[in-house]
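This follows on from our talk about sequence and fold. I would like you to pick a protein and set down its sequence and fold. Go ahead and set the record down below:
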Amino acid sequence: MKDSLAGFARRFYGWVSGLDSIRLLLLGYTSYIVLGWLVLWLPICHQTSGLKSLDHLFMATSAVSTTGLTTISTADSYNFLGELVLLLLIQFGGLGYMTISSFTMLALVGQLSPLRQRMSSTSFSLPQGFEVRAFLRVIVGFTLVIEILGALALYPVFVRHAAPQPVWQAVFHSVSAFCTAGFGLFNDSFESYRDDVWLNVVITVLSYLGAIGFIVMHDLWKSLRHLKPHVTLTSKVILAGTVWISLIGTVLFALDEPSVKALPATQRWMASLFQVMTASTTVGFNTIPIGGLSASSMFLLTVVMIIGASPSGTGGGLKTTTFTALWAAMMGVARRRDTATFLGREIPEHRMRAAVATMMFYVLTLAAGIYALALVEKAPLPDQMFECASALGTVGLSWGITGGLTPLGKAIIIALMFLGRVGPVVLGMAFFNRSKEVEPTAREDLAV
């Protein structure tokens, strides 16, 4: 028996050792989800009985992917241990399991293997030239500091509102906001806190800090250390894209959405910013009922969810840098230029190809998800489209259909959440081997 187990372990280790960095990332996230599912399945994590295995798998996937869609109530279904497991899944999912393991290895050994450096770089979509070891130290330290400060800032809010276990509420929601997970311990998200300015500000700041990505934080840290500006083009694109999407989205939402027009001016703009923020950062909290929004607001939030957050951050979506690169390409064609430029810098051709490939994979995956969900569910098509966009973008906003999904419908959303975390392009690269370059026989123009 021992010999058989030892032989199996050797074969498994040999198989894992032969995987490239992309397949190892997929294996890691899959293993992490399965482990979380099995732990959440244990009765010691439950507050109520009769919970289904598929719901625990759904919750584990939603936590690891930092989505926030739920088929059961987090507060009513799980006890403190279950909530703690979810929080750990969110933390590891937000930072990435490679970040945690690589940082631990760095702290113990003082160096990283070339494979671990490649995996960390792949996990965070780092541009060429980034020093991975310094990057890991910055993001782990930055994460701990921000989440602790966020919890300290939220604690007085929950004390003032007489929320149960205010310390745990503050810690849980701080981590959930920074990791853009959107998991909450209130069944109405933050609808009861809509007029609380301090909570709106803290959650918004935490979500933006998580969504803009660690590349920006790394640049900021280097600037502070060397006392001179050191902002890369990636950081400039992230900051510019985030600001413009937030401004335009907030104005459109405030002017169009009927449910906020009746609110006082301060609450109206605060609620509008919060809802656009929650879609653009893919955090998934809400202060107004999502199911009561107008069709135009639903479409606006869907577009913002698809664009999503930024690379190397905790959010999902197509990414602001991808959207900016495609915008630059469109403007380049309109101006009859052969290159795409942004802020006076030329975007490399291989990055433009990556942006186009990412968009195509994303759109095709979203379309396939919507079609599959429409085959098995009876909810209105717009509601299903919103649900799929939210799942693939790892947002967590819902039109209220998540809890009523059939087992097949839940499986489809689980697949979309997983794809949203690892990225459709990464999955494609994992399953399509690098083919041998074939020389073209001729060059011919193509009408487009």
